[in-house]
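To: structure desk
From: M.T.
Subject: fold request, one chain
Message: Could you run this one when you get a chance? Sequence is below, nothing fancy, just the single chain.
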Amino acid sequence: MSMSEMERKAAISALRKVPFFRDLDQGTLSDLARSGRQTVFQKGEELFQEGDPCRGMFMVLSGAIKIYRSAPSGREQILAMEGPGGFAAELPLLDGEPYPASCAAIEESRVLHVPRAAFEEILRRKPELALGILRVLGRRLRGLVMLVEELSLLEVPQRLAKYLLEMSERRGPTFTLSLSNQEIANRLGTVREIVSRNLHRLAQQGAIRIEGRRIQIVDEKALRDLVEESR
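Reply: Done. Structure tokens follow.
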């Protein structure tokens, strides 16, 4: 099997994981995969910038990406992170407006870019996709509402504890932080020094164990109690 055929099969598998592509027939998925272009982005490399014209949507085949906005001061707020099967830039596909946020690789990532024209052609053939897209946009909106709630109602220690619990739920009680402390700060709406200080404090309290970038959740209840303190 040639590498291009392997890549095509991997792209079809990834497309099937996207909620609004999941029920497409094999032929349509194959057409969509062929219309896309696979690119490897290095850590920190941008897929697109806020304000760029929409060129299509991006799907993560391997690695991870972040969707973020930057203030004129250079301070960054991470809005979402997506791993394999995740995607970015679905909203501009529908409204035709520029990208409302920027997107960059968190680590080396292989990404499938599906051009807007190819997506629109499939949408005309499969109008039922629109309902699936609306569900995905609803999920994205709920995520933003939760982010606003965290930034406005939770203090930094609670936000950090919640973040560690979410990582543990996805990766198990022992995991490696894929984000730097600066990137975690960008996600939590704070600064790197405060993240470092609170990680050290949680370790001193026995809630977590830190070995380099590896985190072990030692006392999950303590983290959950910390999150609940502000409720």
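Reply (cont.): The chain has a mean pLDDT of 87. Let me know if you need anything else for the meeting.
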